[in-house]
Amino acid sequence: MSRQMLQDRVAIVTGGARGIGKEICKTLLDNGASVVCADNGVNIDGTAEDPSITKTFCKDYPDKALAFTDDVSSSTASKKLVNLAQESFGGIDIVVNCAAILRDGLVFKGSPENWDMVLKNNLSATFYLINAATQIMREQFKNGRGPAETYSWGRIVNIGSTAGLYGNFGQANYGSAKAGLFGLTRITAMEMVRSNVTCNYLAPFAHSRVTDMIEPANEEQAEYKNRALKVKPHHVARFVSYLCSDYAKDITGQVFGVRGREIFLFSQPRPISTIISDENWDDRELGENILREFDEYFSDLKTDLEAFNSDPII
In terms of residue numbers, what domain contains 35? Predict the structure, then answer.
């Protein structure tokens, strides 16, 4: 990809000052985009803000990167963030929702407070930003932003997780937020297609603060963590940059994964078998028909850590 493939485009990246988010910011900047890096510098559990982390990162990209250090888990902050991007750089073309926190706990031990905080930071905050940004993107489509006759720069990338697709022990709140993010991605893609704005879901496999937090419950999970630590985030950032390019302008509503040089396209929930029940069946007869027709299709309870516990191609 040309290093100026994203020239004149404006991006917002949440959670953009560290880990995967930072690598995404750097790659978008290197490819010519202007970036508002939104990160208040909290710990992985959402505590102890440190705005200096984001400001320090942006100093390396004068005139091209701006720091936004408010907590984006409110609709007011998201509107402020969108206004900053529009006023400073003239528009909004790319939104990458990467910010997330972790407060793990089993369903019978986790606190309602932690549930609320994770859902607020990992799902509601994403909606708030999409809600604010898509209003601008729709206007840009109507007004013909960009050199083409029809605006086609609009991109939304939601950084999800296989925990939201497979599930994982102790991550009811995190997994539920990421599963909700899949639904938000699909609906955003549907509702923005007429404005030539794409929206896709990307599950990253890379060394990050999230992988650092994994506490293996068995040998397989320990092996998964060791392998994950070897995978650098630039592969994820490179794929995000591709999704933001002209080459991906017709790709929307999809679920991808990136693990090193491996790129996965995930299936999405669709009926795979059907039975027509008889109103006269009792529970036994219904059960017999369910097992006969559906048993071979039932999904197992394998976690995401177990499903991808193999050597990555790096």
Answer: 10-268
